[in-house]
Amino acid sequence: MNALLEILVRGAGAIASYAAVGVILLIVGFYVIDLATPGRLSEVIRTDRNPNATLLAASAMAAIGLIVAASIWSSGGRLAEGLAGTAVFGLVGIVVQTLAMLLFDRVVGISVRDLVKEPELQPGARLLAVTHVAIGLITAVAVI
Predict the structure, then answer these.
(1) Which of 29, 53, 68, 95 could form a disulfide with 44 if both were Cys (CB 3.0 to 4.6 A apart)?
(2) pLDDT tens figures, 62-108
């Protein structure tokens, strides 16, 4: 019974640790998107109910979630390495997503700042949202 309790406590601690790192990465990702949008993103979503800002933020969160899940999967039960990998790979994913948004703005001409000023859902927001998820998936698979 002692061994089972020890396994459960250790497992619960690992879950809580990964969840904490994941939540921190989600918050960092949210604020990076916030920097790319005019106004406070939380207000643009909550008060203005802007569908473009909501879709971009949601897709970024999904991408970060993919990276966190892949990092956990690839840790092979090594908690310290897994947590460090999750933090590093999550931050790399956030940086790559941000660079992709800037690149789309420059090369394709799709500006996040312009998109979130639009009250109606725009095709460019859909494209950037899929790009977020694709970059998250690419990063996640690279981690594995």
Answers:
(1) 53
(2) 999 999 899 888 888 889 999 999 999 999 989 988 888 888 888 98
Q: What is the pTM of this model?
A: 0.86
From CA 15, how far away is CA 60, in angstroms rounded?
22
* Tokens (6 digits) for 112: 């996040």
Sign of CA dihedral 89, 91, 95, 100: positive
Residue 90 tokens, joined:
């999550």
All structural domains of the chain with their residue ranges: 2-143
